[in-house]
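Q: I'm teaching a short session on how sequence maps to structure, and I want students to see two examples side by side rather than one. Could you give me a first protein with its sequence written out and its structure tokens following it? Keep the formatting plain so it prints cleanly on a handout.
A: Of course. Example one:
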Amino acid sequence: MNERRENKEQQTQAVQELRDKIVLQPELDENTEDKFLLRFLRAKKFIKDEAFQLLCNYYKFKRNNKELFTGLTVAELRYVLEDGFPCVLPDGNENGTKIMVLFAGTWDIEKYQIKEILKAMILSLEEASEIKEVQEEGIFVILDFSGWCSDHTSQLKVASLKQIVWIFQV
């Protein structure tokens, strides 16, 4: 289904087909609201098998990284977000693609850990993924490593790097 021809009947049918797959996987039934499932369907251009795989990957990441999903609120992460980790630009490009910028070299390692940055990234991506244009067009991520030094590198563990990769693959 082409997202430009997306209509309510097609949405309803696609969401129901996705729900039918979820029923067979009880660990995936945390959220089966239309609005939530449409995120995955739109991201995969309504190719239901791909949308289902994306949903499975999302829940696998969430299950394997529970600590990143606790305290996932603006209030809890205000100090990280105010430092620009990440900075989601208010306007997207001409297609509606949002742009997220991370100024990695400005990370104050005395103020917060990589875990807080990861949580802020997840929170920002979760919020952005509620926007239809983002669901259809995605997000560009720009990483600026100006000012990055060995102190920053020493804070990174292999597990954190894997989490970063997973966040952007899911």
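Q: Perfect. Now a second example for contrast.
A: Example two:
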Amino acid sequence: MAVISMANQKGGVAKSTTAINVAAGLALEGYRTLLLDADPQANTTSVFIHPDIEVPLDKSLYHVIVNFAPLASVIQATNVDNLFIVPSHIRLSSLDLELAQALDNRSARLRKALESVREQYDYVIIDNPPSLGLITINSFTASDSLVIPVSTAYFALTGLVQLQETIDMVRNTQLNPDLKILGVLCTFVENTNVSRDVQQQLQEYFAKLVFKTAIPKNVRLEEAHSNHAPIFVYAPASTGSRCYRKLVQEIVQR
């Protein structure tokens, strides 16, 4: 089982979009895939569970991390074959405060929870919040690798140094010494000088870690969310769909 976190503490970089469509793409390729929504905003959850349907607290990731509930007890099937989801809940936003006095290794709770389903899935994709708090540390500790989406817009590189410091901290404190960056993904790519300049800077800084596939700014990707479907279901012939299929192939190869 490969565990991959989507991570960038800067919001608006298509992190949730990437988690949703990479997970769905892997599932459509025949891999049993678990999509874990660790973002209290629950945008990923709302694509597969209509926002009018309130997810009970005891059927969410919160119940697993705070109350040590078995992960299997909160996993739900989706309308995509081979794809399953662990829903988020707004209460995850208070996790740092609620676990402040925890005596166990609070950074490793998610990793321990995932051990119980290791034989059931080929991939676990984790959508993280745009922050570097305890939820993200749990995800990094549980993950084999990270995919870092970066918007190719002005100020896009803001925060990448801090993200690298957090990755190094997780490695150096022995929480997860083998954590690696699987790839850096350029998103919201446009035919502009700013977009090209950011892509060039990412190539210079991350070199071969930058995925060959880039995700363009595409209205169909935004529409897919509001229609509660991954892009492959909502607009399978769209540019966004073709690009995410290519990205899934790159991820599998890596």
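Q: What should students look for in example two?
A: Point them to this: The chain has a mean pLDDT of 93. Also worth mentioning: Residues 16 and 43 are 7 Å apart (CA to CA).
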